From TrEMBL:
<feature type="domain" description="Glycosyltransferase subfamily 4-like N-terminal">
    <location>
        <begin position="36"/>
        <end position="181"/>
    </location>
</feature>
<keyword id="KW-0808">Transferase</keyword>
<protein>
    <submittedName>
        <fullName>Glycosyltransferase</fullName>
    </submittedName>
</protein>
<dbReference type="InterPro" id="IPR028098">
    <property type="entry name" value="Glyco_trans_4-like_N"/>
</dbReference>
<dbReference type="Pfam" id="PF13439">
    <property type="entry name" value="Glyco_transf_4"/>
</dbReference>
Length: 266
């Protein structure tokens, strides 16, 4: 393909609070900021946000019974009707290529449209019962992943380690996978102002005079936070770390594969 393209994008993951939602907002936002003459058609299941409203963007609002943010989790599922609605809308457009920022929200599109599907990892295959504890969840996930990888013209992922994991557990040829690196949002930068640092600790109820070991991320079982807590307790028990506190930062009620902290008793 050469010249200016009409690029379809599944933008339903924009509203997700997990890593692939942040990835979608970062990557898609950068693409829209620098379109290079391409036109984007965004398929959404919610009211579009202001960042999506651009001269080079068409937005297709698909009416569904539930949003992807609510249904694409371990204890939920998307209705066949919703999948068909997305397929119908996407397949009816004159698109040159279609991009899924995450396999979680994949749906079938016309075979005439080459698709690129982003697999962020193979954790659900590597640690299946921690991520998908129910048989129903595993069956639906396995079917979706099999269809997505079979129909995709190409696979994208976010690191060399993730690519190796995908090759091993999903049996996708390495030549079919490209690494597209993630980048930190502009809001993440070092803070050196001591007054600002002390105010942040005070606002969070953290001690001002102790060192912190900080974990930031999901609080789901497959993150092995139980192992982190147990290891930290052992290290403290061995002495020499009396001025160190462990801080877990995350949303225990956030959108996730499995209920947060189920296996993470301190």
């Amino acid at each position: 393909m050469t010249g200016h393209l009409s690029i379809g994008v599944d933008a339903t993951t924009w509203w997700n609070k997990r890593g692939f939602g942040r990835f979608t907002r970062g990557q898609l936002g950068a693409m829209l900021d620098d379109p290079r003459g391409h036109r984007f058609v965004l398929f959404v299941d919610q009211e579009p946000v202001d960042e999506m409203i651009r001269p080079n963007v068409d937005i297709v609002r698909v009416e569904t019974s539930a949003t992807v943010t609510d249904s694409a989790v371990a204890d939920g599922s998307r209705s066949v009707g919703d999948l068909l609605s997305f397929r119908r809308e996407a397949s009816s457009r004159p698109l040159d290529v279609f991009w899924f920022p995450a396999v979680y929200s994949w749906y079938p599109v016309s075979g005439r449209i080459p698709t690129v599907v982003t697999f962020h990892d193979a954790i659900a295959e590597h640690f299946t019962r921690l991520v998908l504890p129910t048989l129903r969840g595993r069956l639906f996930w396995n079917l979706k992943v099999w269809l997505a990888k079979r129909s995709a013209r190409h696979i994208a992922t976010v690191s060399e380690a993730a690519r190796e994991e995908i090759v091993r557990y999903l049996h996708i040829p390495r030549r079919k996978i490209s690494v597209i690196l993630e980048a930190a949002d502009e809001q993440f930068h070092p803070i050196t102002d001591e007054q600002e640092l002390r105010a942040a600790r005070s606002n969070l109820g953290l001690p001002l005079d102790r060192r912190l070991l900080l974990y930031v991320g999901g609080l789901a079982p497959h993150k092995n936070l139980a192992g982190l807590i147990e290891g930290f307790a052992r290290a403290i028990g061995n002495g020499g770390l009396d001025d160190l506190d462990l801080v877990l930062a995350g949303d225990p009620k956030g959108a996730a594969f499995t209920p947060m902290l189920r296996n993470c008793a301190p």
